[in-house]
Amino acid sequence: QVQLVESGGGSVQAGGSLRLSCAASGYTYSIYCMAWFRQAPGKEREGVAEIAIGIRRTFYADSVKGRFTISQDAARNTLYLQMNSLKPEDTAMYYCAAGTYCSGNLHLRPYNYWGQGTQVTVSS
Asked: Of 3, 7, 79, 86, whose CB has the highest number of CB atoms within 10 Å?
């Protein structure tokens, strides 16, 4: 099993920045890919960014390209999401996810493990 715990969410005005963190523990050696997803009220969960652990290949949703950066600290088993130029439409619960392969297009299917989520609220 792999446990994921997110932190770093909060409230910010449009144009501001936040950095989310996700601490992984347990059988992390089995993980090949990690990602951030988000879900706004009344909407489906959508992929934001994913990273292949080790080779650090990344993939981003079009809506966040150029504003968000996904990164990893392998020594600390921690995943990050740096979010800049935040917009009100970025408001959502953000979830960290881990899986044994990357979809390459932010599909939900590879991700077996999920955190509890951290709320991000962007006001205009």
From this structure: 79
Do 31 and 104 contact (CB within 8 A), yes or no? Answer: no
What sign does the CA torsion over 109, 50, 77, 9 have? Answer: negative
Please check whether residue 117 is in contact with residue 60, taking contact to mean a CB–CB distance below 8 angstroms. no
User: Mind listing the pLDDT tens digit for each residue in 96-122?
Assistant: 999 999 988 898 888 999 999 999 999
Q: Write b or e for each residue in 80-117: b if 16 or more Cβ atoms lie within 10 A of its Cβ, otherwise e.
A: bbebeebeeebbbbbbbbbbeebbeebeeebbebbbeb
Q: What is the dihedral of CA 107, 2, 17, 8, to 10 degrees?
A: 140
Helices (H) and strands (E) in the chain, counts: 0, 11
